[in-house]
Every structure is written in C-alpha cells, then in structure tokens.
Design brief:
Mean pLDDT is 80; it is low at 1-8. It is built from 13 helices and no strands. Helices cover 78% and strands 0% of the residues. By secondary structure, the chain is mainly alpha-helical. It has one domain: Up-down Bundle (Growth Hormone, Chain: A), CATH 1.20.1250.
Length: 400
C-alpha cells in the first residue's frame, strides 16, 4: 500500500513513476539553460567595462539576492501550489536571461542580476520541494541522487553550449537561447498531474522562525555553503585562469564532473540510504578540497579535468546527501523550508566565494585563491560534521 503524506497526497510506491521521470527531464532542460550563462557572466561584465573585482562581485550578486528571497520561497512552497511557484518564477527568470543582453553597463547588469537571483531562488526551492513529492521516503537518497545526475548533465552541457554560442554568435544569442530554454520547461511543469493539498503548516495563522529557516539543519546549511564557495570560484574564475595560463578547453572541467557524477551519484545515494550521512561527508570534504588544490596548480586541460572529477566525487556526492538527510529528518511537509535553508547556505557560498576570491586573486594570484578555499573546507568542514552528527546521535538516539 502507498503511504500518505501528512498533506494527504499519496506517497508513491516506486521511485520511477511518471511524475518523477517528467520532473527529471524538465529540470534537466531548465538547468542546461541556466548553466549556459554561468561561465560567461563575469566575462561579459568585463567586456562592458567592469574590472575583475567588479565582475566577480556582479557574479555574486545573484546569490546575495537569492539568499534574502530563500526564506519566503520556502514558506510559499510549503503553503501554496508548488507548480504555480515554479511557473511564475520561471517566467521572471527567463525574462532576466534576455535582459542581460540589453545590459550596456555595470549598473543595469547588476540590477538584472539581483532580480535574477530572487526569481532563481523561488524556482529552485519549489523544484526541489515538488520533486520530493514523487520520491518514496526510503528512496530519498537515491531519488535525489538521480535528480543530481540531471543537474550534472546540465553542468556539463550548459557551460560548454554557452561558451560555444558566444564564440559562434556572440553574447546576445547565448542569453536569448538561455531565456527560451528556461521559460518553456517551467510552463510545462503545469501539465504534470498533481493536486495541491495544504499540509499542517498551511492552516497556521501565526508564523515562526522555523517557517522561514530551519534552525535544526543550519549546520548542514553551513556545509553546503562551504561546498558552494568552490562553485562560485570555479564559475567566476575558471575561464579567466584558462586565459591567463594558456589552457585551452577549460570547459572539460564540467565534462569530467558530469561523467563522474553520472557513474557514481546513484551509488553514493544508495550508500547514504544504507550507511548514513557521516559515512559520506568526511571523504566528500577531503575530495572537494583536493580538487581545489589541483585547480590552484593546474597548467593543462588534463589537470583541470581531474579536478572536475574529484569535485564530482566530493561536492557532487556531499550536497545531495545533505539535502536527502535534512528532508528525511524534517519530513515532506517541510520540504520547502528544508530546501530554502540548504540553498541559503549555497547562496552565501556562491556570493562570498567570488567576492573573496576576487580580492585574494587581485593580491596574490589565482593559485592562492584556490588554496584558501581548500583549507577552509577541511578546517571548518570536518569539525562541523563531527559535532553535528554526534549531537544528533545523542539527541535522537539514531546513527548518523
């Protein structure tokens, strides 16, 4: 028999149901379109007159804006129809993609980046919350793992498509294609059969902090932030270090990341379901740190590719396992606030990473910039995992 969510929705018995498959495919198209502009934002900003530091700051503005929108995105995703949130935020996100092409100066590009971040925040929170509706509870690790495989394919295909479009047709063509590819899938989500039934929190007249941010999982949000510092720095500076060091084809980083994720993520998802969060996080942090160290010394495309593979094993396995663990801990009726809290950590990392990275790179070079984030992962990440998992085991009487 299928189990019922507390919201009244029937829990699926199988992972590979029609709703789950449709969400995977549409999410992949949406993420490809989003990733197309990821590696070119800072480069485009420089082309319209921004300095390296300013370009990095503009890149980070999206995450800063998303950070402030996340709590409201989580609240709405838990209380109203998630499909409506996805459709509206997707329309605004698509509009922002196009507006980048009209930005002739730093001021307008900064304004568009801020709006883009807020819309992106609502979209990603609602997407993750909507996805969990179609995943059986005992398959959360594996289900989110396959979802990450689709975003990983996007992380490989999107940046390369974007870079090629810029080379062939220019920035405007890339932004327009990204806008179309973002808008259409978000509208198609409306066709997925799902009747929204409000959960327990929807009937509450008063609001508490935990309706916006889950204090219980904040330590895990910090960990996702550490991982996302790597993302922010790679997305902002990979193309630039390739130009500086004469490394051709730096997009191979995303290709290697994708291949390793596709091969390993379903396996690591099942490992989480069977062995728990601590079993994965210690090696994941170490591998992500090693990836950053390798990029700091990279002088060839092979080194860049190896760094991408290590990052897939580390961050690519760690972040979705954290999301699955937090969702299992708090339940589906809190999927929105869980998603928003985890993503808030990512937003902070994506904002702080490029900003701090730009300062460090301007002073001592790109190599030391990557060394700094590698050290932060180990010095902060490992003790945080130890303290949090020990606390949970003592409080809840469960294995970490």
């Amino acid at each position: 028999m299928a189990n019922k969510h507390s919201s009244g929705f029937q829990e699926p018995e199988k992972l590979w149901n029609k709703g789950y498959i449709a969400i995977l495919l549409l999410s992949m198209v949406n993420h490809i379109s989003s990733q197309m502009i990821t590696p070119i934002v800072s480069k485009y900003a420089i082309s319209i007159g921004a300095s390296i530091t300013t370009a990095a700051a503009i890149s980070g503005l999206m995450s800063l804006s998303a950070l402030f929108a996340r709590p409201f995105a989580g609240l709405l995703s838990d209380r109203i129809n998630k499909k409506a949130v996805i459709a509206v935020s997707g329309a605004v996100t698509g509009a922002c993609m196009y507006l980048y092409s009209l930005s002739g100066g730093v001021e307008m590009m900064s304004a568009v980046r801020l709006l883009h971040g807020a819309a992106f925040s609502f979209s990603t929170v609602a997407l993750l919350a909507f996805n969990t509706v179609f995943i059986p509870r005992d398959k959360l690790g594996e289900g989110i793992g396959w979802s990450v495989v689709t975003t990983t394919l996007a992380a490989a295909a999107g940046p390369n498509i974007g870079l090629q479009l810029v080379d062939w047709l220019g920035y405007e063509a890339c932004f327009v294609a990204s806008a179309a590819g973002t808008l259409l899938p978000c509208m198609a989500f409306l066709l997925i059969p799902f009747r929204h039934t409000p959960g327990e929190s929807a009937g509450k007249k008063s609001l508490s902090v935990n309706d916006f941010i889950s204090v219980q999982i904040l330590p895990y949000a910090v960990l996702t932030g550490l991982f996302s510092c790597c993302n922010g720095i790679v997305n902002s500076f990979l193309v630039l270090i390739g130009d500086e060091r004469g490394i051709e084809g730096v997009g191979v980083f995303f290709t290697a990341y994708s291949i390793i994720m596709i091969v390993t993520r379903p396996v690591t998802g099942r490992l989480y379901d069977r062995r728990g969060i601590a079993f994965l996080l210690y090696p994941c942090i170490a591998l992500a740190s090693l990836s950053m160290l390798l990029l700091g010394n990279a002088a060839s495309a092979w080194a860049v590719a190896l760094a991408g593979a290590l990052k897939a094993l580390g961050q690519g396995s760690g972040v979705p396992s954290i999301q699955a663990h937090c969702l299992k801990r708090l339940g589906r009726d809190k999927a929105g606030v869980v998603s928003s809290t985890c993503y808030m950590g990512s937003d902070i990392g994506n904002a702080v990473g490029p900003a701090m990275g730009g300062v460090i790179a301007s002073c001592v070079g790109y190599g030391y910039m990557f060394f700094a984030v590698a050290a932060a992962l180990l010095v902060i990440g490992w003790p945080l995992v130890y303290i949090k998992t020990r606390y949970d085991k003592k409080k809840y009487g469960e294995a970490a």
